[in-house]
């Protein structure tokens, strides 16, 4: 099909070329030969009257027009895919879809694991791919590389829709036989004891709780740092260490580990966990169903549920 003299099949090739900046890699991505992708690039260059990709040293770089086209072309591809996904009579029991969810390890046991159990019963042909949260820019969402982000509300991209899943607070976790900590945790004990704390990403950055302590000049002695949230509770077992972590995750960990969950000596600011998706997926029936299931799971896991 052609539109304004452009073969619309070339849009997919243009998207791959602008994204990969390498004809060989773009050819592999599209499962076509090197000569075929070179021919597509030649036709695109004629249509746009621009080289689009030029060799600079040993690498290919986008021309100014190529850079300007990259995001609009990707958004157009996403919109076409989303439009084709809209169809009447969705039968979720037989629907075959694959969804990519970008999520931190914090949400996996309290949100994603219950979701997977739901899918096994209600939609056994839907598959889930979990992707790590490496940053909060939403770049993967805008590029269509992930279908859902599960993130705190302060990292929401205002250009795309979102829903609040739940609110969570922070608690302190200690080994059940920790003799340094009594039934309650006061500030003197909190500061006297050593702590285990997460440092996420490369380069590492503080979490919401760590930022609260830093902003309020609460200086702790960090004896152990971890690269995730779920290891915090296990680190305190058999020690006098204290971990400050999300209350839902702390309660979930308490079902498996010999730990006590206590209120922190200061009221750490709570946060809201949200899911966010590309606005082109809003009307996708299967995507909408998945979002509804996440809301059901989130509500079922509420402390008063």
Q: Can you describe what's shown?
A:
With 305 residues, the chain is α/β, with parallel strands linked by helices. It folds into 3 domains: 84 residues, Arc Repressor Mutant, subunit A (Orthogonal Bundle), CATH 1.10.10; 100 residues, 3-Layer(aba) Sandwich (D-Maltodextrin-Binding Protein, domain 2); 93 residues, 3-Layer(aba) Sandwich (D-Maltodextrin-Binding Protein, domain 2). The chain contains 11 helices and 14 strands. The mean pLDDT is 89.
Quick overview of this protein structure:
The chain has about 300 residues and is an alpha/beta fold.
- Tally the helices: 11
- Total strand count, please? 14
How confident is the prediction overall: mean pLDDT?
Answer: 89
The total domain count is 3
Helix-strand pattern: EEHHHEEHEHEHEEEHEHEHEHEEH
Shape: elongated
Order of strands, main sheet, comes to 6-5-7-14-8
CA radius of gyration: 24 Å
Top CATH class of the largest domain: Alpha Beta
- Largest pleated sheet: 5 strands, mixed
The CATH superfamily of the largest domain is known as Periplasmic binding protein-like II
Distance between the termini: 53 Å
> CATH fold name of the largest domain, please?
D-Maltodextrin-Binding Protein, domain 2
Low-confidence stretches: none
CATH architecture designation of the largest domain: 3-Layer(aba) Sandwich
Q: What percent of residues are in strands?
A: 15-25%
């Amino acid at each position: 099909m052609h539109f304004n003299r452009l073969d619309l099949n070339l849009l997919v090739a243009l998207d791959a070329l602008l994204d990969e900046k390498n004809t060989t890699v773009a050819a592999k991505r599209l499962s076509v030969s090197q000569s075929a992708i070179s021919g597509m690039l030649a036709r695109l260059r004629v249509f746009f009257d621009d080289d689009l990709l030029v060799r600079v040293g040993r690498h290919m770089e986008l021309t100014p027009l190529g850079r300007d086209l990259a995001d609009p072309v990707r958004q157009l591809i996403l919109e076409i895919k989303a439009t084709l996904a809209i169809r009447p009579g969705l039968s979720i029991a037989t629907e075959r879809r694959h969804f990519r969810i970008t999520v931190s390890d914090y949400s996996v046991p309290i949100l994603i694991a219950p979701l997977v159990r739901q899918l096994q019963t209600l939609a056994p042909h839907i598959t889930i791919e979990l992707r790590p949260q490496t940053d909060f820019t939403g770049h993967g969402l805008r590029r269509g590389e992930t279908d859902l982000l599960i993130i705190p509300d302060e990292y929401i991209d205002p250009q795309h829709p979102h829903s609040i899943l739940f609110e969570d607070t922070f608690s302190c976790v200690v080994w059940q036989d920790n003799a340094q900590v009594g039934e309650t945790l006061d500030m003197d004990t909190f500061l006297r004891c050593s702590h285990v704390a997460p440092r996420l990403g490369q380069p590492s950055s503080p979490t919401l709780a760590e930022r609260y302590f830093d902003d309020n000049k609460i200086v702790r002695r960090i004896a152990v740092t971890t690269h995730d949230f779920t290891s915090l509770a296990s680190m305190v077992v058999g020690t006098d260490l204290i971990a400050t972590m999300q209350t839902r995750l702390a309660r979930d960990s308490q079902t498996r580990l010999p730990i006590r969950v206590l209120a922190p000596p200061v009221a750490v600011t709570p946060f809201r966990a949200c899911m966010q998706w590309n606005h082109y997926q809003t009307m996708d029936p299967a995507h909408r169903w998945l979002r509804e299931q996440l809301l059901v799971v989130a509500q079922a896991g509420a402390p008063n549920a």
